[in-house]
């Protein structure tokens, strides 16, 4: 890469000298001014055009080079080409536009001036190069003239290029960044390949001889000064024969260099881009420029597609099938508050199209205002789905999509000069990202924050973290806009005051929703105007035998068979076991005809699930899938859930029995939604949860109406009045979740220097949702007293330093954070465990067992998972006996002696007290240890008698905690030894696959099963995927749709581009240092 960039700078410097010389470039420049090239006119390409084509990395010319070109040339090969080990890729064609090629010009000028035997060698060389560069300058001027006619605003970029020319010190950095910002990933692959080739030893005798010739004249050919030597050298007599040979060597070296560069470029695997596409990209750039200017002027009429280029509208049509927006979406996007960049909360029923509005606002921020954007989503699965969905937009429109979920995400994010980033994050990762931006004083780079499911502010510790994140953004940045959306909001006034936001709401649903309640065999319609909340609708018309009545007292089969298989149906069940039982029950009593519906595709799904399970498939799914029925809950692996979701969306499966988590997860609508019970677990259904579930009823563009049926027992009839009640209010959880709420907030405020005195802390707390609602929540203590107690607790734990006093003159004394406190908030460690974690890491330094990663795995096992674990003591004993002697020492170090495990397994009484949390944590470590050795969730779940979903949840939680642990250790110098160890362990836990599959797992939408398929099909690297053909991929990979193939290829290109970009930035930094 440095050689390539050096060559580019050298050609530019020589080009300038050529233009300044008499007769070199002036006349062509005048001709370009007198006869400007019109848009779309066919220009004859010259060397300048060829050079730009090489950097563009995707033109028709490049493809024509690869195929030989349409016009016949002189038929000359390379000189001495008969002995060359490399194939002449140009064959009989020197030019892709007839005979007027760069190589042909070199040859003609060489022969013309060698006829004069008295001509000086250096003069001949100067004339040759001068004529070439004069032609190049003419074509360059013509093309620049055409560019100015198409897009005026590109002058900024051209100015940047001129600055690179005039600044030899920083030229390498500027050129590197500009090229790598604009090139497609396939061209970047070529650069990497060139690096490898340039560093490889050359053993060919022919190439060695050529190298010797080039090296012998390197002072004359490579040094630009050799072409402009003094006059005294020109007047010296030179032997004509030696003159011919020297000129031959020199021009031959130049020809070889140029032809070699074109050969390498022709071999590069580049995308085929037509001139039509290039013109469309020029129009796109112009529209973005116009939209940006329009938005800066705060005009209401802001562009072809809500301030965005028309290409965005085309992408929504191509990728999402969206032709037009709903009326409410148009009204919302045209709100004056949005044009004035005020914060906004908007609320509509589920499936009303809220996300599309948010995505358009996000694109406005990225493309028009050129600011980074943070999108906060509630769950990892939704983050991954959104990353897949928006990666294609990023590639087409020139911005980056970065995933912040689980162990993924960089803190702080890399600051980029040209391209802007869309960070898609979970609540926890979004908080850590905001902290890192505040710490590096880059929070103003964040132009927009979008929060989906804003009602989660009122849900436990995650709600507290979300409140902390938004409060910090509001307090530290006046330039960042906040958009919140939800389907279930009630006390909007408090949220408006907290977020300083406008409010927009609408009752629009694309499909009408009809709500019903079933009691025994009677269906009632929900009617908020009636006394008890519902009115009679109809009786069930289904004949039940006595045996069927006993098996199905809730008449689920009757409700289901009214819609399937023609339409889809969801059954929400209170527990995971209930989901499996319902799926088995329904298929047991369905008619045989249901098996015939899309039978082949169902068998393909079973084969796919068998492949995911390494030859094993769940017996319940094996029984139910032939009838088009499956269950969906957290007991399934990610791969299994994804396969079931895709086949349900395509209509192969017509019925899913699922838990309430599906309602808040991926979008899987149905014609009819059945609520098996008014309970979620052991808790009675809340109005918010009810609305989320029934919101899945009705598919836009497919169903004319959606139906929801809540099954209620006679004894719970009086409780169903909740359908008439308003939605639950959203309250702050900072006080309810002390270690993850109030105390965590106070610690990070001091650590980030947002507020370091009591006065500043009090001022900040007034800007939180708790500050807005303090009259409702703080009945026993005032907010000031709660703050004082929290700060004193942090000082007592050794996380803060300072004194807290009620006296006014002491309220301005500054608080400081300790190293342990800084490590705690930067690692996002729960304050309830930070001191325990520190002690365990300290103890580990005294005798860290490195024979295997077992000891390190114990330290990376999350504390909060120990409460959900119940060890099987015989399994515990067997796993312990399989450890080596060194690994058994780990159990002694952490405080679980062998005698304790033996007595527990044999059922003997235990006199010695052992911490149950430590015992459970060690048991979970055994699970993780087996996972990393076997990389098979199915076999491990069977070995430990756990559900597959629980094992996978443990794995993802451990990967996330290991990432937090790494950031914790980075802040404490004494734990330097853990850094390298945890970096590798985090990667192993994140992917939990064989090493060769890890690069493929980086691609959004590629999980373990898909990665194995791709690897076995020959797609073993990101480069292979990035350059794949979607049609070929669909043919070679089973159960892969064309849409999925395109998404995988787009994501692979994006990952490859991002990796190359980061590498180039690192090279520039190292070079400067």
Summarize the structure in words:
The chain is an alpha/beta fold. Helices cover 53% and strands 8% of the residues. It is built from 49 helices and 19 strands. The strands form four sheets. It has an eight-stranded mixed β-sheet, with helices on both faces. It has a seven-stranded parallel β-sheet with strand order 3-4-2-5-6-1-7, sandwiched between helices. A two-stranded antiparallel ribbon has the order 15-16. Helix 1 packs across helix 8 (171-182), helix 30 packs across helix 34 (783-796) and helix 41 (916-934) packs antiparallel against helix 42. It is globular, with a radius of gyration of 34 Å. The two termini are 18 Å apart. Residues 335-507 form the Helicase ATP-binding domain. Keywords: ATP-binding, Chromosome, DNA damage, DNA repair, DNA-binding, Helicase, Hydrolase, Isomerase, Nucleotide-binding, Nucleus.
Write the layout of secondary structure elements.
Layout: H1 2-20, H2 26-34, H3 47-56, H4 60-67, H5 102-114, H6 121-150, H7 155-166, H8 171-182, H9 185-199, H10 205-216, H11 218-221, H12 231-234, H13 240-267, H14 275-296, H15 310-320, H16 327-333, H17 336-339, E1 343-347, H18 354-368, E2 372-376, H19 380-397, E3 400-404, E4 421-425, H20 427-439, E5 446-452, H21 460-476, E6 481-486, H22 492-499, E7 501-505, E8 512-519, E9 522-526, E10 534-539, H23 546-551, H24 556-561, E11 569-572, H25 576-588, H26 599-612, H27 619-624, E12 629-632, H28 638-649, E13 655-658, E14 672-675, E15 679-680, E16 683-684, H29 687-694, E17 705-712, H30 742-751, H31 758-765, H32 769-772, H33 774-777, H34 783-796, E18 800-801, E19 816-817, H35 819-826, H36 834-846, H37 854-860, H38 873-881, H39 885-894, H40 898-906, H41 916-934, H42 937-943, H43 948-970, H44 976-991, H45 998-1001, H46 1008-1016, H47 1022-1026, H48 1030-1036, H49 1042-1072
Parallel strand pairs: 1-6, 1-7, 2-4, 2-5, 3-4, 5-6, 8-17, 11-13, 11-14, 12-13, 14-17
Antiparallel strand pairs: 8-9, 9-10, 15-16, 18-19
Helix pairs in contact: 1-6, 1-8, 2-6, 4-13, 5-6, 5-13, 6-13, 7-8, 8-49, 9-49, 15-19, 19-49, 20-21, 26-28, 30-34, 30-35, 31-34, 35-43, 38-40, 41-42, 41-43, 42-43, 43-44, 48-49
